[in-house]
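User: structure tokens for this one?
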Amino acid sequence: MIDYLFLPLAQTGIFELLAPAPPGWGGNLLRGFINSVEIGVGAFSLGLLIGTGGAYGKLYGGHVLRDLLQVYTTLIRAVPELVLILLIYFAVPDLINRLLDIVGSGRIDVSGPVAGIVALGFVQGAYATEVLRGAILAVPQGQIEAGRAFGMTPTLLMRRITLPAMLPFAIPGLANLWVVAFKSTALLAVVGFNELTLETRQAAGATKAYFTFFMAAGMLYLFLTLISNVLIGGVEHWARRGQPPIAESR
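Assistant:
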């Protein structure tokens, strides 16, 4: 029974299969891992940019802007990311090319990475909007009013008071969004982009060593998550500098 369960681990040539140089497939997995990291960073950065604007728009914008942002956050969070990726990769370029044909201009082609960054970034933006909005609301109102009483401009108020005070509240939520952004890159396999999951599936299909390669892919995902936890923990410690430990503040 035990031999049967762990037979895949004991298959011969496991190190040769994961070797970085051909005929090993380790190089393919590392290339897919790097592509996933690049897409994850791009999507998270785009989402953070959208989320910052969305949070300020929801809190300080006019009625029309707030209603539009409410529709955006509700709609994007309701639609699965896979549907958005397929929509941006297939439907949006088709619509744009039809318009370009009407005006007699050249056609465009949306690549898998661009579609992935835009789709995942829009999804991230909706969640980041709510995370940052909640963090801004957690800043004591008296600090903001004190800044205004000293005649600070909105930009100076954000840089000197709002941003430093909101960071400790925003970092845990943003850390989750980063991990989700990286893991969601696996959805790009449906449009043929060579991220980690697609590279793993191709390697496993070619060698029939499914257990070996999918375990290796899982370890790479776990590796990046652990590294991210360490880095984000350092950033959170820096953001909370000067504040009493959480255990003492309760």
